[in-house]
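Backbones bend. Shown next:

***
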Amino acid sequence: MKGVIALMFAPVVICSNGCTSERSQRNDGTLVAAISTDPGHLNTAITTNGSVHNAAGLLYNGLVSLDENLKPVPELAERWEVEDGGALYRFHLRKDVRWHDGRPFTAADVKFTFDELLVKFHARTRASVAPALLRIDIPDNYTVEFRFRRPYAPLLLQLDVEEAPIMPKHVFAGTDPLQNPANTAPVGTGPFRFVSYRSGSEIRYAANRQYFRGAPKLANVVMRIVPDAGTQIIAFEAGEVDWLFGVPGPERARIRRDPRFKLIQTSGVSGGSNCVTTLGFNLDRPLFGDVRVRRAIAHALDRRQFLDRVLFGEGRVAEAPVSSRIAFAHASGLRMPAFDTVRAARLLDSAGWRRAGNGVRAAGGVQGVKDGTSLVIGFSAMPSQGTYGDLLRAQLRALGIDLRVELLEPAVFGQKIFTARDFDTAIVAYCNGTDPEIGVRRQYVSTNIAPVPFSNLAAYRNPVMDSLFDYAASALDVSERRRAYREIQEIAVRDQPYVWLVETLSSYAYNVRCTGLSTSSHFAATARCM
């Protein structure tokens, strides 16, 4: 109730000027969506950051798309064959696709996108497809062949627009992909084309009238950048916004009851789905070289409170490193550290971190740490994860650990955590995708310790783990893959490079004046607003 009253008296700020003309345009087919973060760029091939994919998914296509049952169906590829026991995939491309600048789409674009963008900069593709891929051949302008070193089972689940957006070679060839001007003025093949980008304010898109699947019914889409969730809700209820990518927990019940709105709950889309919010330790720091410290922190955290207080019950407590929504790979009955502050205290005592009274613990005989050093730990997170930090700090303080919370904008977070590795602990919602090869592998394999956002945050190294992931990706028998992933999860729980907190869900909401919306990256491709 307190939150509701606060919203009633808060000012509406996102549409104070020019709303009359804009409302007229909206009646003519414009959808306004609110996004909470300025994405910084719109190139979804060089990041797995969810804010970038929300802002830019409408611009691009994958070779395939995934239907509601996650079955691969044609998109830029009209058909395909799998040969050599799963080591060769041949795709036949559509010949009627053009880039938004009018140039024809060809097989050279596919090869360039994988060779120069995805396997280098997209954390999930880099970790999964890259080590297995031998080469990509293009026998002609409309045929692409992926040749793997060994059978590679999950490829077709990794080729939709979320995992493998195809980019124009003629725009990126010969440039630094991270600095190319097209990152903020993109050229795609998708249902909408880019119009304008005002940093910190809004991004505009117009219907692609030459879209190969048929022109969208909407004329325009506007993405308003509104960092404050409460302000998003006010604008939504005032009719200034039609689509929300998230609804705060305290407001969900009211939005669900209001006949003007519809609320959709989902585990996400393809690679951005089945996310497990995870606390990672920087294993390069002497403090976390001792598994007793890592296990003590895991025992000190009441994960149920994260579900109740941070997610307002939307999701579930994580029971294994792999999401429960990947049923064949999720391991049950693992010895996950239970909430046990007595055991946590004993582990810290044995590791040389002792406490006098109710104060902060201090080092005594800890290798690599000066005696008397206080047990102060840094915690880095993006602003959207800030509430996790508040609860972490409270729970760890009870154990004699002082947590210093630092909130960083997404671009800064990526650079500081994955490039500079200047952190103690950090939190990431590792989205597992539809197969562990897509979104789990990147978190553990040593080849993915790299300056790539959302890669192996902990810098965890284990050659047995590396081999098991390789084996699981190449095995064609599901039972063999299941056994490998169970062993992977047993090792992960034993070594504890991360603490797996909660599995999350997402709540999207839309105004019923709009129909035909979906939770996919192409959420507005078939929408109509009256």
Remarks:
- The two ends are 33 Å apart (CA to CA).
- Confidence is low (pLDDT under 50) at residues 1-13, 16-21.
- Residues 478-495 form the longest helix (18 residues).
- The longest strand covers residues 133-140.
